[in-house]
Automatic annotation (TrEMBL):
<dbReference type="GO" id="GO:0005886">
    <property type="term" value="C:plasma membrane"/>
</dbReference>
<dbReference type="InterPro" id="IPR024079">
    <property type="entry name" value="MetalloPept_cat_dom_sf"/>
</dbReference>
<feature type="region of interest" description="Disordered">
    <location>
        <begin position="1"/>
        <end position="32"/>
    </location>
</feature>
<comment type="similarity">
    <text>Belongs to the peptidase M13 family.</text>
</comment>
<dbReference type="InterPro" id="IPR008753">
    <property type="entry name" value="Peptidase_M13_N"/>
</dbReference>
<dbReference type="GO" id="GO:0004222">
    <property type="term" value="F:metalloendopeptidase activity"/>
</dbReference>
<dbReference type="GO" id="GO:0046872">
    <property type="term" value="F:metal ion binding"/>
</dbReference>
<feature type="domain" description="Peptidase M13 N-terminal">
    <location>
        <begin position="95"/>
        <end position="423"/>
    </location>
</feature>
<protein>
    <submittedName>
        <fullName>Putative endothelin-converting enzyme 1</fullName>
    </submittedName>
</protein>
<dbReference type="Pfam" id="PF01431">
    <property type="entry name" value="Peptidase_M13"/>
</dbReference>
<keyword id="KW-0812">Transmembrane</keyword>
<feature type="transmembrane region" description="Helical">
    <location>
        <begin position="43"/>
        <end position="64"/>
    </location>
</feature>
<keyword id="KW-0482">Metalloprotease</keyword>
<keyword id="KW-0479">Metal-binding</keyword>
<dbReference type="InterPro" id="IPR018497">
    <property type="entry name" value="Peptidase_M13_C"/>
</dbReference>
<keyword id="KW-0378">Hydrolase</keyword>
<dbReference type="GO" id="GO:0016485">
    <property type="term" value="P:protein processing"/>
</dbReference>
Amino acid sequence: MAGPTPKSDASERSPLLSPAKGADDNATTGQVKKAARWVTRNAVIVFMSALILGVVITLCLFFGSQPKKSGSQSDTESTHSSFSPAQLVQSLSSVDQQNFDKLKDAYSACMDEVTVKKAGIRPLGGILRQVAEMAKSDDSSTISDTVLFLHKLGVTALLSLGASADDKDPDTVVVVASPPYRIGLPAKDYYSDDAVVKKYEAATAAVIDLLHPSNQTEKFAHDLVEFEKKLAAASPDAEDRDDVTKYYNPMSLQNADKLTPEIHLASLIGRLEPADVKTERIIVMSPSYMANLTDILSETSKETLQTYFVWKTIQAFASYVEADELKPYKRFLNELQGKEADSAPERWRTCVANVDEDLGWILSRFFVEKAFSKDAKVFGDQVVSDIKDQFIEKLKVTTWMDKSVIKLAIDKVHKIVQKIGYPTKSPDIMDPPSLQQYYSSVNITPTTFFENTLSVSRFDVARGWSALGKPVDRDEWGMTVPTVNAYYNPPGNEIVFPAGIMQFPVFDVNVPQYLSYGAFGSVSGHELSHAFDSTGRHYDQNGNYTDWWTNSTVDAFKERAECFVDQYSQFSVPGPDDKPLHVNGRLTLGENIADAGGVTAAFAAWKKRQAETPNQDLPGLEHFSQEQLFFVGYAGWWCGKSRKETAISRIYSDPHAPKWARILGTMANSRDFKESFKCASKEPII
Ligand SMILES: *[C@@H]1O[C@H](CO)[C@@H](O)[C@H](O)[C@H]1NC(C)=O
Ligand SMILES: *[C@@H]1O[C@H](CO)[C@@H](O)[C@H](O)[C@H]1NC(C)=O
Ligand SMILES: *[C@@H]1O[C@H](CO)[C@@H](O)[C@H](O)[C@H]1NC(C)=O
Ligand SMILES: *[C@@H]1O[C@H](CO)[C@@H](O)[C@H](O)[C@H]1NC(C)=O
């Protein structure tokens, strides 16, 4: 953003979505996709890591034999409720116990690989047969019926449908139709990589042949991939799909329906909306995709479409099934990420992620008990408030914004809602009965992993649609509490920091403050900056997508933003052919602006605190000044390593630059860094 530094900058399109999820990119399931969609549409995420280390530790403790006395600080510090995991057996209220048992059953079902393997393809096979049967019908509503059937299971085919806050009326829930986030391969760019496409087709053919042997398998797979190529070509580029100025296309349902005659959008939505709601207006995120879809469908055979629907179902559920039939596909996914073909994460990692997806708020409740103290909450609030104050100070002296814009911008900062730690509404995770109620329609047993997943998918889809006709629930959180991430949600004008990111070494009440301000403070500043980056700047203090910037301020912003585009476009990673694959300076623009604004605001906030209360030095690291350690803390948090293939995949679709570039680019732009390390020559660009 622009906001915080007097001469910083930013520009025009931005990203939002963060597809990159740590280790299990291929574990996309209905729910994951749904969550990703929510966040995609609503939030500018800051971090992309999804390590759930804290949860992992917590769960090891829970699901291991006995809660061990670990002497960890939080055992004693938990003051949120009478419940403490240390006294699990003795003191659980019965509802709390029932919630916990549900969580434990979900985890056990996932961990029971023997049962999962024994079930093999069978649980999925039943659904595949239904889909194949349905898609074969000659009825004119076949496509629509199949899309609906899959949608209700959380499977996206041909288009994605959902309900979320209307950007231009942020308290109202509106129906949104968009191209699928992912057509088949993890990013659109892969469809122009012939080597990858060839392997994908071979994997598809192998799976189809194992499921349904015939002498036509290769043709089916080929036609399927050609069809997906066309859909991919018609889809928006990553850098455009989350640009509100491009995707915000309100339309009458009637007109949207005409745009997609084979899908019968009006009838689809009519069958999904609550009985007392009559949708009349929807947002069509890419009318040109919808128009092209119509043409593409008209030249596609019924067999190809049938293969496509079946294939989407397989892709959506592959990670919930252990069966030889799916191995060629799983091998392909591993290879695409540069992993050993038959490798798999340790099962408990998968299962921890799984309970987070399925029963995330129950998990959150116990995570807070274990890993988040009242002091942490108070300190977190302090850091975020400090950063807000610094933002306002910086805005006051910003020279490139018009006075009128600065005034509104300051008002916007004042109005930013800060959600820190964990939700106490929608649902109140500290209230066992509301948690129980929230998940009452989810059926979980310890031996039915696949069916548990289906139950959760159906629940998520139904919950999404039930929001229609009611005001937007501004108390909801888009990330569960153990999540190591944070986000800014433009229509909500809110920043959200789950307790998962408020953990050592990013954040700790008991370490010198330059470390927490350097890492967590910069994260907070980053999120706040999103309120004024290439996306956030379009939304006013109420979260309304309006034109509140003057033309001269917009021009000044764009000019500065171009510097970021140029700067980050110079970074590259080795590409598929080992030629440099450059960072997409436009796709990553919003995040890069936010990084610059974040570290600047955090540094100023820390300096102010430090002037009041001196910090201690770190024993053994006295040769660094505290200013330098602030930046060491910042950079340490971005240390990471990725495989060549994963790095490529992220360049295609991640709105964040590679981690190392986030350090180098941000430090190169920071006057405070330059001064702290007494860098000699070059002028920082901002
Ligand atoms: C595939 O096998 C069927 C018989 O099962 C035969 O009628 C058909 O001609 C074969 N098609 C091709 C392309 O070989
Ligand atoms: C999609 O449709 C638009 C017009 O609506 C057209 O300009 C464009 O070329 C089409 N793209 C593809 C890939 O068919
Ligand atoms: C949002 O902005 C539109 C104009 O773009 C205006 O008509 C509407 O009243 C605003 N709504 C809110 C809640 O501010
Ligand atoms: C601002 O720019 C837009 C288009 O760039 C133009 O339509 C509008 O008239 C301009 N407004 C002013 C006040 O100059």
